[in-house]
Amino acid sequence: MDVLTALLLLVHLIPVSTAKNGVSSKSRKRIMPDPVTEPPVTDPVYEALLYCNIPSVAERSMEGHAPHHFKLVSVHVFIRHGDRYPLYVIPKTKRPEIDCTLVANRKPYHPKLEAFVSHMSKGSGASFESPLNSLPLYPNHPLCEMGELTQTGVVQHLQNGQLLRDIYLKKHKLLPNDWSADQLYLETTGKSRTLQSGLALLYGFLPDFDWKKIYFRHQPSALFCSGTCYCPVRNQYLEKEQRRQYLLRLKNSQLEKTYGEMAKIVDVPTKQLRAANPIDSMLCHLCHNVSFPCTRNGCVDMEHFKVIKTHQIEDERERREKKLYLGYSLLGAHPILNQTIGRMQRATEGRKEELFALYSAHDVTLSPVLSALGLSEARFPRFAARLIFELWQDREKPNEHSVRILYNGVDVTFHTSFCQDHHKRSPKPMCPLENLVRFVKRDMFVALGGSSTNYYDACHREGF
């Protein structure tokens, strides 16, 4: 057994002990680091394997948990696409050989995989918003193309969809059996990996769905900001954040030495190697248990990987402390959060449209939303990460509505900045919807400082 296989087994076979609040310690530590269960020193390989999110035993989750007198009204799901082939190649090395065709009896396996492929092959006439209608509905290349979803990525989202089906449809009857097209809201960026991830989750959620009822909208921006993407102050925060990243990298002599060693192995200038973002390709090797590349000058190895991954973890830590990314996130996440509360408010009025919303997106979509919500301790979005907003009605007080926020199955509602104090003052098990509405309509701008009270003014603030 090689080292990678042993590490994979270690991460996925940790005994699951249930904590007092019903969340397993395994699932909890995947989201919010727990000093009791985490490795005593940050372990870059452990973190990387959590990021891979290799499908294994079905995970326990806290979605759909509520006292019996609460009724589920609507659900809003934000996902990162599943496992993909790298977007970059390490110069002068052989690309990792990953097969992106879907084979039912190959690992990782899912009982619905064959039926998924069959159903997707019938959807070629489906009507999606342009340019989505020109994208393939499932991955299908014997050697993966750059950025292409893998079988692992499809299985990850079939699992997500099935888990949400068991909870939201079978248990809570969120949609009627004869659900209609207007009860779903589906939106994705124009990448095949996000469209295919959305379809895989949807197939797990609504097996053998009627293609006539499915319509994916196209979102040109990874921030899902639709017609409100122009925001100069957000871009200024981003430039300052990128400057912070650059300065942190300059201070890391071990990182520089590692890039230098790797550049000699592949015989390119260090600058060119760094520009090729080698960690992206190395993560693919790790997640798929493929050896790192070698040349006649030597091999890229696990020590190189650990140095680069450790720097990434340090960068995330400093990012939280310096708060520049928070400014970017508050403005970057506002449009999509504003859309979501608008949808929730319509549902509280008894409207039956868009009861289930799905945004199929990227790490650069979920990460700002997590940061804006105040979930600064949450781990960087892994492959097939899911962030869910649930809207509930109190049957005993029908005018009262509450929200729950869940990240990869863990209830993080009371970790959010808008609800972290609520349960200290109130016995209610959920967060009032008005807390989230007030946060999006007012407190997000207060957190930015200055006198802005709306998105436009905050984006165009002078003298930032």
UniProtKB/TrEMBL annotation:
Question: Any idea where this protein resides?
Answer: Golgi apparatus membrane
Q: Does the keyword Transferase apply?
A: no
Record has Phosphoprotein as a keyword: no
How this chain sits in the membrane, per its record, is:
Single-pass type II membrane protein
* Signal sequence region: 1-19
Biological process annotations from GO:
chondroitin sulfate proteoglycan biosynthetic process; glycosaminoglycan biosynthetic process
GO terms for cellular component: Golgi membrane
MF terms (GO), sorted A to Z: phosphatase activity
Catalyzed reaction equations: 3-O-[beta-D-GlcA-(1->3)-beta-D-Gal-(1->3)-beta-D-Gal-(1->4)-beta-D-2-O-P-Xyl]-L-seryl-[protein] + H2O = 3-O-(beta-D-GlcA-(1->3)-beta-D-Gal-(1->3)-beta-D-Gal-(1->4)-beta-D-Xyl)-L-seryl-[protein] + phosphate
Which keywords belong to this entry?
Glycoprotein, Golgi apparatus, Hydrolase, Membrane, Signal, Signal-anchor, Transmembrane, Transmembrane helix
Q: What is stated as this protein's family in its record?
A: Belongs to the histidine acid phosphatase family.
Subunit composition and interactions:
Interacts with B3GAT3; the interaction increases the 2-phosphoxylose phosphatase activity of PXYLP1 during completion of linkage region formation in a B3GAT3-mediated manner.
As for what it does, the entry says: Responsible for the 2-O-dephosphorylation of xylose in the glycosaminoglycan-protein linkage region of proteoglycans thereby regulating the amount of mature glycosaminoglycan (GAG) chains. Sulfated glycosaminoglycans (GAGs), including heparan sulfate and chondroitin sulfate, are synthesized on the so-called common GAG-protein linkage region (GlcUAbeta1-3Galbeta1-3Galbeta1-4Xylbeta1-O-Ser) of core proteins, which is formed by the stepwise addition of monosaccharide residues by the respective specific glycosyltransferases.
Q: What is this protein called?
A: 2-phosphoxylose phosphatase 1
